């Protein structure tokens, strides 16, 4: 691609570990204003052929400086969130600001210290969690041996089955680092379905799409393992 064609083009590394773009500067600026791109988001500047943190991209620095508090200014109250911050979570990306505000009213922020066991296998589930910060691991214990099933980072979620069935948890969830979560209980979600179905419906649809993708991926791994085993017979 010619140099003039790459000028003012940018690619974003998303929370789901996938690239988005290339996009032009006006689109990138709108993502910054919507808080879909934050100071620590990695941005590939095509003109310079390099990755940089968004706060270090010259064209964006004025927007991040504008958000810095003035000396002596009071910090934002603990537990406050904006719709833009929530939209960085993939399953919430299509919701409007009004829908996100209503959803936040049904959720609670939860700070989790490192090494906390948030979910225990076999316990009855009563809530779903969205990861706003930190990292957690999903594990199974067989005897005293730990098997890690997956690692959860910012933008991911777990415990969604509890919104439909308060049956036993299928695995443990441990905080690998200090983490910030959004918790929505099964009871609060059931009330949201009654009070604000226009919010609950798109939220459930987004969850269902993610679960479908997971099931397809699991089915493929299962098929591949069978094919591999049969090839060795």
Q: Nutshell version of this structure?
A:
This protein has 233 residues and is of the alpha+beta class.
Count of helical regions? 7
The proportion of residues in beta strands is 25-35%
Q: How many domains in all?
A: 2
Taking pLDDT < 50 over at least 5 consecutive residues as the criterion, the unreliable ranges are 69-79
Reading the helices and strands in chain order gives HEEHEEHHHEEEEEEEEHH
Largest sheet: 4 strands, antiparallel
- Report the CATH architecture of the largest domain: Sandwich
The overall pLDDT, averaged over residues, is 83
Query: What's the CATH topology name of the largest domain?
Result: Jelly Rolls
- Based on secondary structure, the structural category is alpha+beta
Net shape = globular
Walk me through the structure.
It is a single chain. With 233 residues, the chain is an alpha+beta fold. It has two domains: 3-67, Dna Ligase, domain 1 (2-Layer Sandwich); 83-228, Jelly Rolls, CATH 2.60.120.10. It is 33% helix and 27% strand. The protein contains seven helices and twelve strands. A four-stranded antiparallel β-sheet has the order 2-1-3-4. A hairpin with a 4-residue loop joins strand 3 and strand 4. It is globular, with a radius of gyration of 21 Å. 21% of the residues are buried. Residues 69-79 have low confidence and may be disordered.
